[in-house]
């Protein structure tokens, strides 16, 4: 069984308000990429992925006038994808939804949010992800009220390997957008880091609930974060990814992603990367490890292989010219894929 996460840049721009693909020569949201070119590239990538389920990050928006789930099902039909059924969770106001595309012949999926609803007053014990989390992050005796701009998608899956809990995430970016000077840049960056960590603490609390219940669990998506990714991390002690993984906890309390583990081993050696951005004022590309597929200890025996479909670092992608070009045209992130298989029988 193949499970993937894929952040698709400006996917919403490829559809009209009726959810129909805009297959024309107008510009997409990607630099110097037409809608026709991005749609064709995405169709090719999704076809080659041939996944049983794909967590689409930055999926088309859901609002009174648009339905991102219907749009993705139309996209899947247009390109003949097995993963043709869309599952959405709580919608948001950012035009970047979390939607699970899956093959209904293989996987049954339903939105199954856990935790109490709190309203604006908030709660401390892992409330529902569309609610408010109360936490004191800076030990000033004043609780912060934290909300997800993109509430994680909690899904209950029925699979050939049995029931699996899945949480799709798109954690808030830490980039200091809107800063007018160095002081404001630092203030915004630290505030964003605090919010990002709070979201990860909230997510970790839900992970611990599933681990306590012995639920097979997959947490996947874009964390906009990784060990050593920015200079403010040292002020807080650890990255959000380390919090969600449960780094330094006993093995039975940890989630596992081999790319995160590799990055944590050495922060000065070359690391896996899942995204590639052009830095205009520096005239260069920045690569980063932002996307993960984490599994609980109970799923480790079934987790046979992780793979980042990187056009330059993955040899299969590099030697396939059509796939390499499609990956570079489709998005600034690349798919991360987990292969799951039935655990081998244990001899008595």
Topology:
Elements: E1 2-7, H1 35-49, E2 53-59, H2 68-78, E3 85-88, E4 97-102, E5 108-111, E6 133-135, E7 144-146, E8 153-159, E9 162-170, H3 182-212, E10 217-222, H4 233-236, H5 240-245, H6 258-265, E11 275-279, E12 284-288, E13 291-295, E14 303-308, H7 315-318, H8 321-330, E15 336-340
Helix pairs in contact: 1-8
Quick recap:
This protein has 348 residues and is of the alpha+beta class.
CATH topology: Deoxyribonuclease I, Chain A
Estimate the strand proportion: 15-25%
Low-confidence stretches: none
Count of DSSP strands: 15
- Helix and strand element order: EHEHEEEEEEEHEHHHEEEEHHE
Please state the structural category: alpha+beta
Shape: globular
Fourth CATH level, the homologous superfamily: Endonuclease/exonuclease/phosphatase
The main pleated sheet reads as:
6 strands, mixed
Number of helices: 8
What's the number of structural domains?
Answer: 1
What is the name of the CATH class? Answer: Alpha Beta
Give structural notes:
With 348 residues, the chain is α+β, with helices and mostly antiparallel strands. The protein has one domain (2-340): 4-Layer Sandwich (Deoxyribonuclease I, Chain A). 26% of the residues lie in helices and 23% in strands. It is built from 8 helices and 15 strands. It has helices at residues 35-49, 68-78, 182-212, 233-236, 240-245, 258-265, 315-318, 321-330, and strands spanning 2-7, 53-59, 85-88, 97-102, 108-111, 133-135, 144-146, 153-159, 162-170, 217-222, 275-279, 284-288, 291-295, 303-308, 336-340. It has a 6-stranded mixed β-sheet with strand order 3-4-2-1-15-14, with helices on one face. It has a 5-stranded mixed β-sheet with strand order 5-8-9-10-13, with helices on one face. A two-stranded antiparallel sheet has the order 6-7. Strand 3 and strand 4 (97-102) form a beta hairpin. Helix 1 (35-49) crosses helix 8 (321-330). It is globular. The two termini are 27 Å apart. The mean pLDDT is 90.
